[in-house]
Amino acid sequence: LANETLLTTDELVRVARVAAGLGIVEVRLTGGEPLLRRDVVDVVRGMAAIETAEGRMRVSLTTNGLALPGMMAELVDAGLERVNVSIDTLRRDRYAELTRRDRLDDALAGIRAARDSGLRPLKLNAVAMRGVNDDELVDLVRFAIDHDAELRFIEQMPLDAGHTWKRAEMVTGAEILAALRREFSLAPIGERGASPAEVLAVDGGPATVGVIASVTAPFCGACDRVRLTADGQIRNCLFARDESDLRALLRDPALDEPARDAAIARVLRASIAMKRPGHGIDDPGFLQPDRPMSAIGG
User: Fold this and answer.
1) Is it the case that residue 164 has pLDDT exceeding 90?
2) Alpha carbon of 195 to those of 131, 199, 225, 294: distances in Å?
3) pTM of structure
């Protein structure tokens, strides 16, 4: 994305403030890699200062962890409340192949930095991929437990840049649980509510593991999320092909500040009201979004 298309710190904070007035109480910064933004600490600080119906805006971050050792203290000081670190493999060769860089040690150092910061819960995300890392599921759970983290396995979704996803090649949530149950005792924990993950206690707890089965066990009816892309587009579903433009409103010189906020609120309300009852992946006419996951924010 061209730099001039990216929302500025003030623009991001403005959208979050307007959203708070509509009932939003939590913001998650994702990517791509959010820590590549030079102003990410300022974004966290600005959003964490917003008043919501439940107190200050809760700000969390999903990251590959590479920059956390040098940034964790500053992020916590700015008001960050929670961190999710993506880690699909513990094998150096696989990590290098998946990420195109030999930096597994840096990613693991990032996880340790997040753990040592004291922010809880610390969550780890792993996408289960057939023939790639599906032989590491148990090892990943043990790693998470050893690092006082909650692991979430995610079904691979049709959001790849190459549009090569095939459902038959996906490791399903049921397969993930079956593999884990061969090694651990798993028991459901309470009601999931609007959470995307089914969370289970491992060997009686307190350790837990979660499975996000977005494809085979969708939770669309309980979804309470909306996404703002880095270039100012609102998406009411990961799999939506339509977007609503906020950047034009944020930069329209004809609007004064109250009118600008009111226009943003109208677009947010309309987008949320048009959330679909399901993602339609199983429909014969389903088409992948043009944007890959890295350009949407997941």
Assistant:
1) no
2) 28, 9, 10, 21
3) 0.88
Contact call for residues 261 and 250 (beta carbons, < 8 A): no
Contacts of 58 (CB under 8 A, 6+ apart): 25, 26, 27, 81, 82
Rounded alpha-carbon distances, angstroms, from residue 160 to 121, 153, 165, 273, 294: 28, 17, 7, 27, 8
Paired strand residues for 124: 85, 151
With a cut of 60, say whether residue 63 has pLDDT above it: yes
**Average pLDDT value for residue range 128-150:** 96
Strand locations in 143-229 (E):
149-155, 186-188, 198-202, 208-212, 227-228
Residues 6+ apart with CB under 8 A from 86: 62, 63, 64, 65, 124, 125, 126, 127
* Burial of residue 6, with CB atoms counted within 10 A of its CB: 0-12 exposed, 13-18 middle, 19 or more buried: middle
Cβ(108)–Cβ(85) below 8 Å? no
Q: How would you classify the pairing of strands 58-63 and 26-29?
A: parallel
Specify the residue for token string 């060769």: 93
Question: How many whole angstroms separate alpha carbon 223 and alpha carbon 212?
Answer: 13
